[in-house]
């Protein structure tokens, strides 16, 4: 399995580059990369971001201006692994142990994608994708379709593969009950904060105060 950080967003609501915003004294890009490195990965950064090359190798989009799906497509076009873990740069409170658990789940799911859902909404930018989806994603992007969930669903169907969806609330409940024993879990923040994106200055101020 390979791992990638999605860092190609325009950060329009934030008003400045999110990847270099400081959270707890360090840029968000460092937090994201460190999570993946702690799991034994050698992560790469996705996006047209030569300015981030000092943190890790950068993979630019093959098809520009297609949003996060363009980054996913670029990663799948270069990976040498069937399964590939993606983490957006703006989820600093997502526990490392959650990523470890999701990666392990994907290894036994035999699915085109392993996608968490939070409060009834999919989180397709923090997910695991099979490289068999590449050709279908590339075709969709070439036709101007950058909708992640729609394209992934169509690609999985074309490959006759399933999508493994799961609710993070169930994972959090298992963590609280002790069904997921790990020294990391007791120190993780409340589950409702795991997928709180830092999209605005108010989000950042709130996160730095927590």
From TrEMBL:
<dbReference type="GO" id="GO:0005525">
    <property type="term" value="F:GTP binding"/>
</dbReference>
<keyword id="KW-0547">Nucleotide-binding</keyword>
<feature type="domain" description="MobA-like NTP transferase">
    <location>
        <begin position="3"/>
        <end position="155"/>
    </location>
</feature>
<feature type="binding site">
    <location>
        <position position="61"/>
    </location>
    <ligand>
        <name>GTP</name>
    </ligand>
</feature>
<dbReference type="InterPro" id="IPR013482">
    <property type="entry name" value="Molybde_CF_guanTrfase"/>
</dbReference>
<keyword id="KW-0342">GTP-binding</keyword>
<comment type="function">
    <text>Transfers a GMP moiety from GTP to Mo-molybdopterin (Mo-MPT) cofactor (Moco or molybdenum cofactor) to form Mo-molybdopterin guanine dinucleotide (Mo-MGD) cofactor.</text>
</comment>
<protein>
    <recommendedName>
        <fullName>Probable molybdenum cofactor guanylyltransferase</fullName>
        <ecNumber>2.7.7.77</ecNumber>
    </recommendedName>
</protein>
<dbReference type="GO" id="GO:0005737">
    <property type="term" value="C:cytoplasm"/>
</dbReference>
<keyword id="KW-0963">Cytoplasm</keyword>
<dbReference type="GO" id="GO:0061603">
    <property type="term" value="F:molybdenum cofactor guanylyltransferase activity"/>
</dbReference>
<dbReference type="GO" id="GO:0046872">
    <property type="term" value="F:metal ion binding"/>
</dbReference>
<dbReference type="GO" id="GO:0006777">
    <property type="term" value="P:Mo-molybdopterin cofactor biosynthetic process"/>
</dbReference>
<feature type="binding site">
    <location>
        <begin position="6"/>
        <end position="8"/>
    </location>
    <ligand>
        <name>GTP</name>
    </ligand>
</feature>
<keyword id="KW-0501">Molybdenum cofactor biosynthesis</keyword>
<feature type="binding site">
    <location>
        <position position="90"/>
    </location>
    <ligand>
        <name>GTP</name>
    </ligand>
</feature>
<keyword id="KW-0548">Nucleotidyltransferase</keyword>
<feature type="binding site">
    <location>
        <position position="90"/>
    </location>
    <ligand>
        <name>Mg(2+)</name>
    </ligand>
</feature>
<comment type="similarity">
    <text>Belongs to the MobA family.</text>
</comment>
<dbReference type="Pfam" id="PF12804">
    <property type="entry name" value="NTP_transf_3"/>
</dbReference>
<keyword id="KW-0479">Metal-binding</keyword>
<dbReference type="InterPro" id="IPR025877">
    <property type="entry name" value="MobA-like_NTP_Trfase"/>
</dbReference>
<dbReference type="InterPro" id="IPR029044">
    <property type="entry name" value="Nucleotide-diphossugar_trans"/>
</dbReference>
<keyword id="KW-0460">Magnesium</keyword>
<feature type="binding site">
    <location>
        <position position="18"/>
    </location>
    <ligand>
        <name>GTP</name>
    </ligand>
</feature>
<keyword id="KW-0808">Transferase</keyword>
